[in-house]
């Protein structure tokens, strides 16, 4: 049995009762560098790097093998070769943009604008309205088109209005001007100023991120005629036709996330602003293609989106960007090769045991809740029983037969790949729900809960230390991957996920009194996080309302993981290892999993746009609410992590 915890890394200068995160990770936090091509470092990044190295071997092997024409291996090799052929890319310069920029010059009215935008969007240019295909929250046994606000280039609508981001806005205008100049457009400074002005007007009609995560407010099922009535100046049928979209079939019904955004957009589609919209569209074309063009554009693109917004010092090496490109285009083809060597059967079996114990722990916790009525408990248990776990990889991988690749045509490969994926998505309308579909590749270091499928999904790549040790003791595994499993199950019962029933339908299954009791608990948790300021962002606090879903997931995940740990290892069993009891090892493993450091600029960006709290609080603030942590380390009122018992939030009992 591997120990899973290296006690030499613990920092004796920091008491665990005062700061679990820094007691466990303090030495690493002081000594570990953030790679110059990264905005963060830590356990997640380490696993991402390891997975990336293995994927590189797969991709370079495919490129060297010269597999038969039409095979996935040949296409993988072609994609990578086209990305790595820098001599050809430099020789082409910005010439691949010329045809599209000339088409924009010919736009004289909004009818032509809508048609051209529809055509360009199919191959990757961003528009004013994003769409995707997913199960209908109201009727999860069918697919429906979803539409949401777009049109801006900064991370969030607040970047356009808050004084704190004035310098970012100035930098953005300069960046847009330089990119347009590199694309050989005249008056780049004037165009950039018009683009910022237009995007600021667009952003004024955007919903903020807290509103955008509201499952009820963003569920607006409308007919195409009803959507068109909100923005009559933008011909949605012409836009769809130009994008090779069957308007009647695909847009007959639309779940529109932010209806008022389209009403606001209508006020901006004026003759006076048409020149600005043309400039905006030129910018969309240049920006979407920048990663596939000459080094000057690539470097300028990184300078703003990497260095300015996130504080990243250096661009990632070209091979890493090439690997990301191939994964974006044929991720599941790469994943099908990855799992042959990187996902042993033992991992699936051990994960199956962990998930069973986590679900049993939730079952028992729900049964004991003092704040939930028997009526709601019965429905919660029905939903829990309906959970579908997916581990490792899909049963069947995506078919890439429709993708045509060319080792000499990078931008063409990128655009053809996007067109194939767009067609794949559009084909879902009218088809049965594909319950084997995955929204992450096997080589992705992450996990997710999908409310309309009521499923929890764990790709193979996250099933590695420090999250998962196939041969470690229970304390280590339940404190890390167990808490991740609990977190994802917990999303089914967080402030938004709890609004979906066991079939995946957006339906209220709570009594009014139970929902009121739940909201009172979550309101207290929001206030806890609102008061927190992370290191590197002095004067800026966590947005407890934006992060509440993930905070509920963290708190519930760790609480239930502890209960599952006790089920797997009854109280009193287990000898200390290196002087640490099993209970202490459980919480230390939790802290190891959140080992991370983040550049200050990236910390600020995440506080604005990320629904997750900073790593130090995902570790420390959670344990402050769990009585078992106090018992494990003898935490008292004199210690910094102490929280008065009446102030602790218990949603699911440990």
From TrEMBL:
Which Gene3D superfamilies does the entry link to? Collagenase (Catalytic Domain) (3.40.390.10), Neutral endopeptidase , domain2 (1.10.1380.10)
Quote the Pfam families the UniProt record gives: Peptidase_M13, Peptidase_M13_N
Looking up InterPro entries in the UniProt record yields: MetalloPept_cat_dom_sf, Peptidase_M13, Peptidase_M13_C, Peptidase_M13_dom_2, Peptidase_M13_N
> What are the Peptidase M13 N-terminal domain coordinates in residue numbering?
17-394
Give the protein's cofactors. Answer: Zn(2+)
Q: Which UniProt keywords apply?
A: Hydrolase, Metal-binding, Metalloprotease, Protease, Zinc
Name of protein? M13 family metallopeptidase
Cleavable signal peptide:
none
The family this protein is said to belong to:
Belongs to the peptidase M13 family.
Query: PANTHER family per the record?
Result: FI17812P1-RELATED, ZINC METALLOPROTEASE FAMILY M13 NEPRILYSIN-RELATED
Q: Which domain of life is it from?
A: Bacteria
Which residues does the UniProt record annotate as the domain Peptidase M13 C-terminal?
Answer: 446-649
């Amino acid at each position: 049995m591997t120990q899973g915890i290296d006690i030499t890394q613990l920092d004796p200068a920091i008491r665990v009762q005062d700061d679990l995160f820094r007691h466990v990770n303090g030495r690493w936090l002081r000594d570990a560098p953030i790679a110059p091509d990264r905005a963060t470092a830590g356990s997640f990044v380490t696993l991402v790097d390891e997975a990336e190295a293995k994927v590189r071997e797969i991709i370079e092997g495919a490129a060297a093998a010269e597999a038969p024409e039409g095979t996935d291996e040949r296409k993988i090799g072609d994609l990578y070769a086209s990305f790595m052929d820098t001599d050809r890319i430099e020789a082409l310069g910005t010439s691949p943009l010329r045809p599209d920029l000339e088409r924009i010059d010919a736009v004289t009215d909004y009818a032509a604008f809508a048609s051209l935008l529809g055509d360009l969007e199919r191959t990757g240019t961003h528009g004013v309205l994003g769409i995707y295909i997913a199960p209908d929250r109201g009727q999860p046994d069918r697919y429906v088109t979803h539409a949401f606000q777009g049109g801006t280039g900064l991370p969030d609508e607040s970047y356009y209005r808050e004084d704190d981001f004035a310098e970012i806005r100035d930098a953005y205008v300069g960046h847009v001007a330089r990119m347009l100049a590199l694309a050989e457009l005249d008056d780049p400074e004037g165009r950039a100023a018009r683009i910022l002005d237009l995007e600021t007007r667009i952003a004024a009609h955007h919903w903020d991120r807290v509103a955008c995560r509201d499952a009820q407010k963003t569920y607006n099922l409308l007919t195409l005629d009803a959507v068109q009535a909100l923005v009559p100046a933008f011909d949605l049928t012409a836009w769809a036709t130009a994008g090779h979209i069957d308007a009647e079939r695909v847009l007959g019904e639309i779940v529109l996330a932010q209806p008022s955004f389209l009403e606001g957009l209508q006020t901006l589609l004026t003759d006076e602003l048409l020149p600005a919209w043309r400039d905006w569209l030129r910018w969309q074309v240049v920006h979407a293609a920048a990663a596939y063009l000459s080094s000057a554009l690539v470097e300028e693109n990184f300078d703003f989106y990497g260095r300015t917004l996130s504080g990243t010092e250096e661009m990632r090496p070209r091979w890493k960007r090439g690997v990301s490109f191939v994964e974006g285009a044929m991720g599941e083809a790469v994943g099908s090769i990855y799992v042959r060597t990187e996902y042993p059967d033992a991992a699936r079996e051990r994960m199956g045991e962990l998930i069973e114990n986590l679900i049993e722990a939730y079952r028992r916790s729900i049964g004991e809740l003092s704040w939930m009525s028997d009526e709601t408990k019965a429905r919660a248990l029905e939903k829990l029983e309906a959970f579908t776990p997916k581990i490792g990889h899909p049963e069947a991988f995506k078919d890439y037969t429709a993708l045509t690749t060319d080792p000499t045509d990078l931008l063409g490969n990128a655009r053809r790949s996007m067109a194939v994926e767009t067609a794949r998505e559009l084909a879902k309308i009218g088809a049965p729900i594909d319950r084997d579909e995955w929204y992450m590749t096997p080589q992705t270091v992450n996990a997710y809960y999908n409310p309309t499928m009521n499923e929890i999904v764990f790709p193979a790549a996250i099933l590695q230390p420090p999250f998962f040790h196939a041969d470690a003791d229970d304390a280590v595994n339940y404190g890390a991957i167990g808490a991740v499993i609990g977190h994802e199950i917990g999303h089914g019962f967080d402030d938004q996920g709890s609004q979906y029933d066991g079939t995946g339908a957006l339906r209220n299954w709570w009594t009014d009194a139970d929902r009121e009791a739940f909201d009172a608990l979550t309101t207290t948790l929001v206030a806890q996080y609102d008061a927190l300021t992370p290191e590197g962002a002095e004067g800026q606090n966590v947005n407890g309302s934006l992060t509440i879903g993930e905070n509920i997931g963290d708190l519930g995940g760790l609480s239930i993981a502890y209960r599952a740990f006790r089920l797997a290892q009854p109280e009193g069993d287990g000898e200390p290892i290196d002087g640490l009891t099993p209970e202490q090892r459980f919480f230390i493993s939790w802290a190891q999993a959140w080992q991370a450091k983040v550049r200050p600029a990236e910390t600020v960006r995440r506080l604005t746009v990320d629904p997750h709290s900073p790593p130090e609080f995902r570790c420390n603030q959670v344990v402050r609410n769990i009585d078992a942590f106090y018992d494990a380390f003898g935490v008292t009122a004199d210690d910094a992590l102490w929280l008065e018992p009446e102030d602790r939030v218990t949603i699911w009992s440990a």
